[in-house]
Amino acid sequence: MNFFWIWSGKRLKRYFIAVVALLFALGIYYADHQHIQVFLPFDSGPSAVYSVDTQKKEIALTFDISWGEERAGPILDVLEQKGVKKATFFLSSPWAESHPDIVKRIVDAGYEIGSHGHRHDNYSQYNEAQIRTQITKAHQILSKVTSKEPNLIRFPNGDFDKRVLRIANSLGYTTIQWDTDSLDWMNPGTQKIVSRVLSKAHPGDIILMHASDSCKQTHEALPQIIDGLTSKGYKFVTVSELIAGAKTDTKAVE
Known about the structure:
Blueprint: H1 2-26, E1 28-31, E2 36-40, E3 48-53, E4 58-65, H2 72-81, E5 88-91, H3 93-98, H4 100-108, E6 112-115, H5 128-146, E7 152-153, H6 162-170, E8 174-175, E9 180-181, H7 190-200, E10 205-210, H8 218-231, E11 235-236, H9 239-245, E12 247-253
Parallel strand pairs: 4-5, 4-10, 4-11, 5-6, 7-8, 9-10
Antiparallel strand pairs: 1-2, 2-12, 3-12
Helix pairs in contact: 2-8, 5-6, 7-8
């Protein structure tokens, strides 16, 4: 009887080790608020940038805009009032095309423009021709509206797969994600947004926020976020400046 249990224990241990090894080979699952990605422990092609590895207290505030015209103005007001001259806005091309005055204000203020794609869909559900069409159509519109060609892209809902990454890379784009999600898209309350950002922010961080009308508390939380980060010694930079100044933290996708 004792021999049976010893043998069974050894066999169970071998099975456990095999399962762990298999999971490591397949990757680690990570879920954000809209999708699940698989991070592979080896280089499998173009990757998304989530943050950068740096000791400098630099941080990138990023804002996605896909619809509405009531929230972007107050957010720009706060950035101006607080003297924040560096931030990155990821613009949906249909929104940019229908709101040229707001886009002009963003550009004139010197903020960086990235693409948020054309249709606000999960691009991993498209075939390769459709993915390419969505990225290039957005590129054409944003280049015309801003008079600058974007080279950063954050896909709608943060959704992508390895095909999306590969096609974006072939079109000259770097895919940008985030390491700190403010959760402002959930409208959880101003103080919850502030507390979440200030507790999670770190050197080289990319912070996700939104300037679409559905996010009603971002402009209220932003002053406290800026003051809190500034008091901790952080300097605000664009995503491009963050990438240029340090090693990027990227994760490959299956």
